[in-house]
Amino acid sequence: MHPALLISLVLLLNFLSFLAGRNFEENKQDDQKMQLRIQMDKVKTEITTKDAQIEELRKELEAKEVDIAESRKENLSTAPTRHVSLIPSSPTESDESRIVSEVASGKESMATGNDKENVNTRNRGIKKRT
């Protein structure tokens, strides 16, 4: 064989192997892109199903809130009403006697205990000033 033909044949084979390798890399990248698209589609379907579940749960919650509000209205309408008088009732004799005895005992304690405390605090104040 002629050496120039041999060299051209080797160059042709190198070029073909380069193209084959490049084509292999492109195919590999295309496969990766397809896998990513498939994963994205799966995630999108999961998101839509989750959104649908969330919407169903919201509707259930709203229905339960309406039921609770209606039952509260029913409970309020059927509950016995208590009448609260805004006018104070007059004190009974026992209340009056209790109040008088508390006031009297308070005056006694003020005459005995509180005066001593007041004198002590006054003396402390005087001692601090001098």
Q: Can you put this structure into words, describing what you see?
A:
The protein is mostly helical. The protein has a domain of 37 residues. Helices cover 87% and strands 0% of the residues. It is built from two helices and no strands. The radius of gyration is 49 Å and the shape is rod-shaped. The N and C termini lie far apart (132 Å). The mean pLDDT is 76.
Query: What is the β-strand count?
Result: 0
Report the total helices: 2
Overall mean pLDDT = 76
Order of helices and strands: HH
Short description:
The protein contains 2 helices and no strands. It is mainly alpha-helical and 130 residues long. Residues 1-21 form the signal peptide.
Question: What are the defining features of this structure?
Answer:
single chain; 130 residues; mainly alpha; 0% strand; signal
Strand-helix topology:
Elements: H1 3-78, H2 93-129
Keywords: Signal
Region (Disordered): 72-130
Signal peptide: 1-21
